[in-house]
Amino acid sequence: MTNTKIILYDCLDIYKILNELGNTIKFDTIYISNEEELNLYVKNLENYLIIHKHAKFKNKNQIFLDNLPITLDKLIEKINLFILKNIFVEKSNKKIGIYSLNINSREISYEKKKMKLTEQEVKILIYLEKFENPIKIEQLQKDIWGYSKELETHTVETHIHRLRKKFINTFNDNKIILSTKNGYLIE
Questions:
Q1: CB neighbours of 11 closer than 8 A, spacing ≥ 6?
Q2: pTM tops 0.70
Q3: What is the C-alpha to C-alpha distance for residues 142 and 86, in angstroms, rounded to an integer?
Q4: Which residues pair with 49 in a beta bridge?
Q5: What is the DSSP track for 125-176?
Q6: Are 39 and 50 in contact (CB under 8 A)?
Q7: Which of 87, 130, 171, 173 has CA atoms 20 to 30 A from the CA of 71?
Q8: Do the Cβ atoms of 17 and 69 come closer than 8 Å?
Q9: 182 or 56: whose pLDDT is higher?
């Protein structure tokens, strides 16, 4: 949940304090005073946290402030913990084709089989999954390894070859990463 929008629902006092601290705490905050407006606002948001004082309010992305007053340090700690937990959860299950990738443990699975991956293998899979069209070797070199396009190396081909071999040995899948004349892509 990077770039999380912090919504202060009916907490004008806390909003004013966080807003005044602006550059120091680096949270993107907004104040909303009624539930209808709140529901409309969060409808299309993915990364948000609602801070409120109302026990009746139910939302999975919320911090309920029941022990008021609260110190600023404690509030910021609660916000940071919420964001860190959600980042961890986000990275725990990413779909790569038919597979489930846990970025935190660098493990990919399908049905009951699991396979460990290196950090570079995870980067390759996540990168290729983002695109529908093949990605050229030079682009992978630049974006995954930070190499210039002019550098002659077989790093990409070597990593792809090893990764394919692991998929064949573990999942009997020789089509996870396709090689075309225009580059590599995930099927």
A1: 31, 51, 52, 53, 65
A2: no
A3: 30
A4: 6
A5: HHHHHT-SS-B-HHHHIIIII---TT----HHHHHHHHHHHHHHHHH--S-S
A6: no
A7: 87
A8: no
A9: 182
